[in-house]
Structure formats: C-alpha cells, structure tokens
Design goal:
The chain is of the alpha/beta class and 205 residues long. The protein has helices at 18-30, 45-62, 72-78, 92-99, 113-121, 147-151, 170-176, 185-188, 193-201, and strands at 7-11, 35-38, 65-69, 82-85, 104-108, 126-130, 159-162, 180-183. An 8-stranded parallel β-barrel has the order 1-2-3-4-5-6-7-8, surrounded by 7 helices. Helix 1 (18-30) runs parallel beside helix 9 (193-201) and helix 3 runs parallel beside helix 4 (92-99).
Length: 205
C-alpha cells in the first residue's frame, strides 16, 4: 500500500469543531492531498470516533489514505488504512497484530537514522523525520537535518518530512528527497486551504 505513498500529507489539528474540520479537510483533499492523518489528543472517545469516521468517508471519496495517530483500536474500528506511532506510542508489532500485515504503520524517527533503521527492521511502512524547520505546533521539537532524506533512501521505505513546512520552504524538502511533506498549520490555518494544498501537491507532479 505504500507503493504510491507520496505527496502532500495533511495532519489534522486538535479541534472540537467537526463540521469545520471536515470542510477544511475536504478542501485540502480537493487540492490534492494524498494522505490524511487524524491527530486529536482529546479524551472524548465519541468525538474522536465521529471525526475519524467523517474523515475516512472523505478520504475514500477522494482516493486518499487515512491514518490514525497513536490509536490502533480506533484505526481498527473504523477500517482506516493504518496508524502513525511515535517513540513512546504503541509499538509496531502491536499495530501489526491488531491491524494486520497490509496496514500502513508509520513511525516518528525525529532526527535519528538509527531509529528509522530499527523501525524498518521491526516492520514500519514509512519513517518520518522532523522538525525539519521551526514548528509553531511543537516549538520544542528536535530539528532534523534535510540530509536525512537522502540517507534514508537505503531503507527502501518512504520517508516523510514534518515540522514548519509551508509554501515558502516546501521545495527544499522535496528536493532533499522526502517522499511526502506533512503539514498542519500551513494547511488548516490558511485562508484558502484548497489553494495551498494545490500548490504543495503540485511539487510532486
């Protein structure tokens, strides 16, 4: 399933406004996003289920992938394409056990190629590095050099860049070899999310 794992990767912001979230995500998908990650740290399970199901319907309609951040059970319950886990989240093996061999399991590797090597050996579908630039969402995040994306080519899985990416600097990340660029604020806070998505998705065409 990761054969075509490439392009614009949208990550949702924490919000209780389900209608607004879905409307913006629809615009971002129509602009060309290939992957959406539902990320909401709310403890409201019913809200998270409702939002995830709405996002899955949009992704199916637009031919995009939906991943769930750090919630293997939610991914299983709604039939999402997979999950994204961090260093402190549920392990790759647990995700595979629950979701099966065909699920996408992405792993945050921060600024460390050694973490990526370990993740791939454990069965990760893709590896994510970041923050590649200063991030307003996670200002304390470790900075990851762009050279990691060239280095990661030998791992034979897609690499994803995250952190501080926007229209002004995205080309640098694409040129460095990232298979996908992930954004939150630059998409969801934009006055015209569809236009920004179209501009960024075009970097991979």
């Amino acid at each position: 399933m990761t054969k075509n794992f490439r392009g614009l990767y949208a990550i949702t912001p924490d919000t209780a406004d389900t209608d607004g979230l879905l409307a913006k995500t629809r615009a971002i998908l129509e602009g060309g996003a290939a992957i959406v990650q539902y990320r909401n740290k709310s403890s409201d399970a019913a809200l998270r289920r409702t939002q995830a199901e709405g996002l899955l319907a949009l992704c199916r309609e637009q031919g995009a992938l939906l991943l769930i951040n750090d919630d293997v059970e939610l991914a299983r319950e709604i039939g999402a394409d997979g999950v994204h886990v961090g260093r402190d989240d549920a392990g790759i093996a647990d995700a595979r056990r629950v979701l099966g061999a065909d699920a996408i399991v992405g792993v945050s590797c921060y600024d460390q190629i050694t973490l990526a090597e370990t993740a791939v050996a454990a069965g990760a579908s893709y590896v994510a590095f970041g923050a590649v630039f200063a991030s307003s969402v996670k200002p304390e995040a470790i900075r990851a050099p762009l050279t990691l994306f060239h280095e990661a080519k030998r791992l034979k899985v897609p690499s994803v860049a995250i952190g501080g990416i926007g229209p002004a600097n995205a080309q640098q990340v694409v040129d460095a070899g990232a298979d996908a660029i992930s954004l939150i604020s630059a998409l969801y806070d934009a006055a015209d999310p569809k236009a920004v998505a179209r501009e960024l998705a075009a970097l991979y065409r």
